Amino acid sequence: MSCILNIETSTDVCSIAVSQEGACVFERVDHSGPNHAVKLGVFVDEALSYIDGRNIHLDAVAVSCGPGSYTGLRIGVSMAKGVCYGRDAKLIGVPTLDLLCVPVLLGQDLEEDALLCPMLDARRMEVYAQVVDRSLRVVRPTHADIVDGDTYKEFLDHGPVYFFGNGAAKCREVISHPNARWLNDIEPLAKNMFPLAEQRIAREKYEDVAYFTPFYLKDFVAKPSKPLL
Q: Which residue among 11, 35, 60, 67 has its CA within the 20 to 30 Å range from the CA of 93?
């Protein structure tokens, strides 16, 4: 297993975590934000001091690559790049919506045919969402959804769909399908990032430190997408 510095700044929450040997060994979280410009540098400095104090070699830096807040992602990616340059570490991009699925997959007893729909809040009744199965296979790619009662009907008719993330609460009022499942308090946190980062290390799926940019919310537009069911 590798030592990874995980950075998550895609929403108002700012969090970092150090993972080693497949476990989270250091974590800092701030829920009072958005305070990324103030908190992230302090948290990363504490994490690097933890690593150095134990003579651990930092192998990689994993960072949320969106969708998410433009300012938050920009700050997080800039910090990740700086650490990679300074420590000669690999850079790993972790999709925010995949990250949201990790605590659900690890903490919920899901039906075999269950689908997951992580959501990030946008304006009015708009969310940024994707639909995946329990192996994180993409059933419908990420894009902007203007939510009404029929938005996810084709998936809900197929079986249970779990909705979660900071965009799910407002959708609960308009989606009344009996197969809809709602999960509260699911947020993207750095401590949940390392299983996805480890997978990318195993596949040697690294980002180019010089040219890597995240996917901002503005990169997704509301348009129909053919499902893969």
A: 35
Q: Answer whether 218's CB lies under 8 Å from 120's CB.
A: no
Q: Is residue 165 very low, low, confident or very high in pLDDT (cuts 50, 70, 90)?
A: very high
CA separation for the pair 129, 175 (Å, rounded): 15
Strand partners of residue 163: 117, 182
Single-letter residue type at 97: L
Sign of CA dihedral 82, 87, 92, 95: negative
Burial 137-167 (b: 16+ CB within 10 A, else e): eebbebbbbebeeebbeebbeeebbbbbbbb
Q: Is the dihedral of CA 64, 70, 75, 77 positive or negative?
A: positive
Report whether pLDDT(227) > 90.
no
* Cα within 13 Å of Cα(175), Cβ side: 28
Can you count the helices (H) and strands (E) in the chain? Answer: 6, 10
Residues near 85 by beta carbon (within 8 Å), at least 6 away in sequence: 209
Interhelix angle 36-53/70-87, rounded to 10 degrees, is 30
d(CA 125, CA 123) in angstroms, rounded, equals 6
Amino acid at 28: R
The 10s digit of each residue's pLDDT in 174-217 is 999 999 999 999 999 999 999 999 999 999 999 999 999 998 65
